Protein 1
Amino acid sequence: MRFLMLLWVVVELLQIVVIGLLAVGYRNLQRRLEGGDRFEHRPPRSVTEE
């Protein structure tokens, strides 16, 4: 019975970790997409510039 309880706790903790990683990855993806559309911090790169 203790083994099942320990297994349940480990599975729950893994779920929390996976959800956290997905949330962080999603936030980074949103920042990257927004950064591609906004040129407030840096001007867009010119095609003709070398």
Note: Residues 14 and 20 are 10 Å apart (CA to CA).
Protein 2
Amino acid sequence: MKKALLCLAFAFCTAVGVNAYATGTATYNDTNDIVNPTDVGTVKNVIITDVASGAAAENIFYVDQAPSGSVLNSAAGFAMKKDAPNGTYYMTLRYDNNTTEQIPFTVKNSIKSDDMPMVLLPGSIEDGEDGKFSVAFVTENSVNLSEYTTVKFAFTENGTTGYFGYYLKNLQAKFPSSEINLVGQNGVFFGVKLTEIENIYKNGAGGANVSMWLSKDENWKDKGGNQ
């Protein structure tokens, strides 16, 4: 059986987004990052923040106002920023009769039961510059990459986890050799190296609060880190 270790390198960036869904009195569509309020009344103003009050610019994930004499189409939904991490968000709606409603909803991760966990490659944690480090993960056994579509990874700090992902088909350019092709690769050990991770995600000298999976999820948003 042919076995190869395929190593990819891409940097973690705090501006990348996560795939998520929402529960509660508003729904979140993770295909297009649209939030739909339960009430589809005639809306004049909409703001979505990650704080209940006193939002600064960094807390705003959507803001819009209808032109004079018109209303926003709340049935069509409102597109959030694509870098919205897990947590509770607040959609504040001002209707055309000037009443205001604040709707909380929760963005959660989408790790599935059939996602294959990858394991930390021993000795792969390396300190870099500017308080950052790198780490690599590999599959425990050989896999048929043609059965998977996505690499998912997660970072945990103080009990809060952010989930990120890449489509395998979009990783081709990151291989050191153009002769390596992800499509149709069978019976290989597959590995991924994450670089420029903030040290807040380190867990002592030999560990990291980082996790990784191979997934068959075709609906995962392609919101990974930058090179």
Note: Residues 157 and 201 are 6 Å apart (CA to CA).
Protein 3
Amino acid sequence: MSNLKFKLFFIFLAVGFIFIAADIDFRTSIKYPHPYENSDTVIGEFQYYNISSNYGAKCTYKYIDTSDSTEDINNHNTNSTTKNSAGQTQTKVIDKVFFDNIHIDILNDLVGFLLILAACFGFRRVNKVFSFAFFSAFCGLILHIILTLLPFFFNGLFLCNISMVLGLAYLGSIILTTFLFSKGLFLMCPDVCCRDERKWGKIAWFISMVLQILLTFVLWIGSDFSALKSLGYIIEGLLVFDIIMFWLILKRAYIYLEQSYIKSASGGK
């Protein structure tokens, strides 16, 4: 039974890692209860990037005259600049932002964190690092729920600001959680025969962390740049491939991980 439990927990961590790292959004027909309240205190690009990357959004554009002043250039993130027949320079900027319909992630992070929570709880007796990973995953789960529910209670600039701050904290919880349970797994196979698996496993995890941060930034900016969004999909594919390689590396040390779990489950006997 212990062997079956270990295999189950190992699979939970592998699937959970992929779920919290990859996103496949599905646009539903359900609308948010209130339209987005645009703010005049910050540029439309900032509002659009945050709302689009977190909840899905649409926007309209306008042209501003920048031929006689550089003030508008400093206050707006420009997408394109044109000149009309009179010699005036006009810059295209985002005007109004609108909520899109509610998006659902097929590879839902909620499921991913629940799988990781279950696995870390099952591995808690092996070493205390899994207890820390459990707490980190629990914080990530709570942050995910809060981020999902924010548009139902808040709106406008406050929603933009709080979703950006909590989004960064959420990214941190993903990185910390994967770091902790990876460290816990490496501690389960300390023998010299698993030295290469630990080394390459750490490299694979580090690459996943870099790709996760880069993906978040690219998709945030890519809300209004289709080329960057396409680049984000490529990075996401590389991220999933790297995570698969991480688990294939650990699979080479599977028997040692299993033995460590069985030993801890039997009280070290």
Note: The beta strands are 25-27, 57-65, 80-83, 89-99, 103-105.
Protein 4
Amino acid sequence: MREVKVTSLEKIEATNGEVRLLVNSGDLAMVFPQDLWESVLKEGSFPSGPTSREVQELETIKRQLGEHARENSFATILEDVPLGGPLDGRSVQQFDLVLRPAGLLAVTTGYVFLPVVTPEHVARLGVSLKEDDFVEQAYLVGAVADRRTLAAGDEGLKVLSVRGRRCSASRFELAPELWQVLSEKLGWKNVEPVAPGGPLGADKNYGREG
């Protein structure tokens, strides 16, 4: 394997479906196909901060979930439910929403909404969830969550990212009220599933957005 150390970046050009990086004082050109370049950006360990549009969509999901629950006479509709323990600087870890549809087989679901979800958030909430006898499953919904974070989810605690419309579960495994809001209110056609259990996760073959 031949290695070339990049010491400077002179210019980035995007033309004809390719991204061209001129590096090392222009002595070396690195050429990426557009889809490969986008994949490299997507796989970054630390996601860039959410855009205002992504944050707005996150807030819309939260608002629409509450409205959907009230319109359909859910048995439980609670906001700001304490769990105990710090999360993202909060003095008390809490669910932003706790919802339970009417019906004998209904499941009580807790939702936490954050601009950026990290593996640390998943770990902390996972510990608290195991000690909670009220909420049966939970979702950490972020404007941004990278693949490492998505892969940290499990059967009881799922992670959903507005950016990329990705989740640690397929759309068929989502809480019915959540998928109804995403598909009917926001127009999502699918989510890209990222399987839990690995450092970067492995995509399930449920299909991509579109």
Note: The two ends are 38 Å apart (CA to CA).
